[in-house]
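Subject: Glucosamine-6-phosphate deaminase structure
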Amino acid sequence: MEVVITSGAQESARLAADAVEQLLARKPDAVLGLATGSTPLPTYDELVRRHEAGQVSFARARGFTLDEYIGLPADHPQRYRNVIDRELVGRVDFASDAVTGPDGLAEDLQAAAEAYERAIAAAGGVDLQILGIGTNGHIAFNEPGSSLASRTRVQPLAPQTRTDNARFFEDDVEAVPRLCFTQGLGTIMEARHLVLIATGEGKAAAVQQLVEGPVSARWPATVMQHHPHATVLLDEAAASRLELADYYREAYAAKPEWQGI
Ligand code: PGA
């Protein structure tokens, strides 16, 4: 796992956008894994900026979102399908239907979860997965206790997650759905490059476990320690509890620039 301590959210966004731009330059029909939440927004803004400058095209790319609330009405602004359209897909040149997410309104939820797994596999798997991390160490909505081998499934949201996400629902925790679809940890681990971004002191405990803790379902993101190409982009606050922060800084400073992340 490569840990990069950046000067802040903007530098993290630039590095993540560099990785996406370089991927699309060498593989225009790449498959992107798109996180929602607040953390990736500066990255999406940076990609939109580069798209408008003619530097990057998504015309042949495809995308899969990580997770979805179950039961939100189709036009609800916090439905992740709508969030990703608003924040990225509708602002660049993805082909229509090139980006999909699990169907939170499916009648048969189990069948929808299995269909989502098949769709990712049929697309050839995810080349680059953008990730955030929950304060409780979840990635996607894989809450503590999730099997490290889990696949796309229906999950209850942890109380911590519902509290954390109430800010998207006018601070009304009761308005936050109780059930979600999430790609499993096993699903996410099949993506060829994982790029996790964390900003702010609120993520420091989860980041400490992710980078330096034992691999455990208690902190689901720790499964990333088993991934052959995982990059963690942190601001100073998110990195503030890392025991080996100085070492990560030195290692990154010594890295040849051509290697990218
Ligand atoms: P955030 O959410 O980016 O809104 O902090 C991250 C997450 O819960 O995975």
